[in-house]
Each structure stands twice: as C-alpha cells, then as structure tokens.
Amino acid sequence: MTRMLVLLVAITVALVGCRESAQTPTATPENVPQIDIALEAEATSVGETVLIVTVTDATGAPVEAQEVRLRGDMAHAGMMLVQEQTDSGEDGVYRIPFGWTMGGSWTVTVTVVLTDGTTVEDTFDFEIDS
Is the pTM of this model over 0.85? Predict the structure, then answer.
C-alpha cells in the first residue's frame, strides 16, 4: 500500500511539473515594438545625463508609450541601483534624466508600457568612465 501511495505521489508531481504555464504572454512577437536607446555624448562619464529612449514598431514608425521606466544596475554586487521614469515624450522619443553614480559596467533595463497596457522590456550595457 505504501509503495502505491509513493508511486501515485511521484506520478502526480511529474505531471504537475510537465504542464504548460497558464500565464499568457503580454505581447506576441508580431506586435512587440522595437526599442532603441541612445546616450548624449557627455553621458559616458560619471554624473548627470539624459538617456534617450526611442520606441518604434517593426516598420520604424514611432510608437506612443504610456510610461517609460529605466533601471540602471552596476555589475558590482551591492551597488545602489538608479531608477527613473517618464510619461511624456514626442514621436516615440522619451528623454529621461539619469545619473551615472560611479564609473564601470552598467546594465540599463528599459521597460515600456504601451497605451494598451502591453509591457515591453529590453536591456542595454554601457561602460561609464570615472
């Protein structure tokens, strides 16, 4: 009886682990806009700058966003992250004040919330001079 119970539990665990996720993606590959980010020239050294996020669709047409959020993380463990956001832009271009607090390797995660609620995210790496 104990063997049957153990076998039944093992089969149940295996079946639960093999099922597909019930979560639906927030966007399909066909309607995910292309995200581009660029920095002004003085942005590659420690200090205040502006990050420019350009949101376009697959044809290169500007896409209006409800909100654009930035999260900057350094490669070093224990460093404080930098977060900024904006809800205004023009023609798919969003200018967001941002502070490089230390020189080194940074990863900036850009999260774009479109007007229909779809969320699109991408990451970009930067080397910042001290």
Answer: no
Evaluate the CA torsion angle 32, 71, 117, 62 in order and state its sign.
negative
Torsion of CA 82, 58, 40, 68, to 10 degrees: -30
E-strand ranges in the chain read 34-39, 47-56, 65-74, 82-86, 93-100, 104-114, 119-128
Q: Band of the pLDDT at 120, cuts 50, 70, 90?
A: confident
- Cα of 106 vs its chain's centroid, Å: 14
Nearest to 102 by CA among 73, 71, 128: 128
Q: Measure the CA–CA gap between 17 and 39, rounded to whole angstroms.
A: 44
As a whole number of angstroms, the distance between CA 53 and CA 94 comes to: 5
